[in-house]
UniProtKB/TrEMBL annotation:
Pathway entry: Cofactor biosynthesis; (R)-pantothenate biosynthesis; (R)-pantoate from 3-methyl-2-oxobutanoate: step 2/2
Organism listed in the record: Abiotrophia defectiva ATCC 49176
Name of the molecule in the record: 2-dehydropantoate 2-reductase
E.C. no: 1.1.1.169
Keyword Isomerase: no
Domain Ketopantoate reductase N-terminal: 4-148
Length: 308
């Protein structure tokens, strides 16, 4: 199975590295020329749980190539539509498109460009940090939950599950994946935005009573909106999951902190807390914490000049 990973940031590099190390046919595509050139010239430099340098096939988005069997999307949420347009030449009517983006509602965007029979939606709790062009830090382990958007895609989905597990990525084909997607969105909505705004690690934010209260309120808004959309989540179970994760990922700066504070880039806030605020408004549900967090992130984005 020829796999293209579209979006070779921290997570794209992790998946590309692990799949290539397992002997699979994988090519990374990205739009950051310095990153592409660094990997082409020196290989991907990995630090963290192990230190090594690996050769990976990486190309710019517009480069011609044969169509792939599987396309894994790892771009930022606000880049999704443009990326699907720019990579149309890499897909045909048989290509499976596997979305692992943070946030909510991406399946509706993908349907504009890909037959729903070919779409897979998933969520992962693997972590990675992009240190600079061609350099990533990989620590700890993670999992993937996913399923085909159309039930007819289960057979191919199980093939993809086996492919990912061969690379040690701990994948599970999960018919209730949207529960997992909303749970991950809740993780991002309570950890990413808060750590970005307060410039701290997960452990630092969760260590205070005030931080945990904010987490509770944000989590409640996510769960209330999810329930109204027919996705039932256990509030106490998710809170305990967040607390356990805050210990496991104690020293980690979430991806939104990496974008906003470290890299001075536009964030995915509109597809996480902002998405819950919009959905809540449509459903007549008040979401004051998600609204406020979204507005604060927007203020910071405008302050550093990445939001018009």
């Amino acid at each position: 199975m020829l796999t293209y990973i579209v979006g070779a940031g921290a997570m794209g590099c992790r998946f590309g590295y692990q799949m290539a190390e397992a002997g699979q046919k994988v090519v990374l595509f990205d739009g950051w020329q310095d990153h592409i050139q660094a990997i082409k010239e020196k290989g991907l430099i990995i630090t963290g749980d192990q230190d090594k340098t690996v050769a990976l096939d990486i190309r710019p988005f517009g480069q011609d190539a044969s169509v792939c069997d599987l396309m894994i999307l790892f771009v930022k949420a606000h880049q999704l539509e443009t990326t699907l347009q720019e990579t149309a030449h890499l897909r045909d009517q048989h290509t499976k498109v596997f979305c692992l983006l943070n946030g909510l509602g991406h399946e509706e965007v993908i349907k504009r460009y890909v037959d729903p029979h070919n779409i897979m939606m998933g969520v992962t709790v693997w972590t990675a940090v992009l240190l600079g062009p061609g350099q990533v830090r990989l620590k700890d382990s993670g999992t993937i939950n996913f399923c085909a958007l159309d039930p007819s895609g289960k057979e191919v989905g199980l093939e993809v599950e086996a492919l990912l597990n061969q690379a040690g990525l701990n994948a599970t084909y999960d018919q209730e994946v949207f529960k997992a997607i909303w749970t991950k969105a809740c993780v991002n909505g309570t950890m990413n935005s808060t750590c970005a705004l307060t410039d701290c690690t997960i452990a630092e934010f969760f260590s205070s009573e005030e931080g945990r209260l904010i987490v509770r309120q944000l989590m409640h808004e996510f769960i209330t909106v999810a329930k109204a959309k027919g996705i039932a989540l256990d509030e106490e179970k998710i809170y305990q999951y967040l607390m356990d994760l805050s210990v496991k990922l104690a020293g980690h700066y979430p991806s939104m902190h990496q974008d906003l504070v470290q890299q001075k880039r536009l964030t995915e806030i509109d597809y996480i807390n902002g998405a819950v605020a919009r959905m809540g408004a449509d459903l007549g549900i008040d979401t004051p914490y998600c609204k406020m967090v979204t507005e604060f992130i927007h203020v910071k984005e405008r302050q550093i000049g990445v939001r018009a």
